[in-house]
Design brief:
four-stranded antiparallel sheet; mainly beta; 14% helix; Immunoglobulin-like; elongated; 136 residues
Length: 136
């Protein structure tokens, strides 16, 4: 009887241990999140590396938008791509889709201006690719 109880407990602990371990990477949208790849290009179509892309949720980018209000920001890689991986809490929880807006800024003197922006609507567990065009 003790042997059966011991083996049962051992099995329960083993199953619990294996099922509780998992990959905690933030770049996986498999749990109702979303992924958006933003490519920044100039007017000639050349990709722009090293540009900071700002994410705004449910707030369209206007001339009065400031970088400090962004929910997230990512710098473009050598291919001009900024990869945003959003988890469930970064999307609208009560709705099945969220409208996201992305912007790139530039500074002239002490003034920060919008160089380019675009918006996209994503659903949970969806991946999209978009482009933000900026001047030369």
């Amino acid at each position: 009887m003790k042997k059966v109880l011991f083996l049962s407990l051992l099995l329960v602990f083993a199953v619990t241990g294996f099922t509780s371990c998992g990959d905690d990477d933030d770049d996986d949208a498999s749990f109702l999140g979303a992924n958006v790849e933003v490519t920044v290009t100039n007017a000639l179509g050349m990709v722009q590396s090293g540009k900071t892309v700002y994410l705004y949720k449910d707030t369209p980018v206007t001339s009065s938008t400031v970088p400090g209000d962004a929910k997230k920001m990512i710098v473009t890689d050598a291919n001009g791509v900024a990869k945003f991986s959003l988890n469930l809490t970064e999307l609208n929880i009560l709705e099945s889709q969220t409208t996201l807006y992305f912007a790139v800024f530039y500074t002239v003197g002490s003034e920060t201006l919008v160089a380019g922006s675009t918006g996209v609507t994503v659903k949970r567990n969806e991946s999209k690719k978009i482009e933000v065009k900026i001047p030369l």
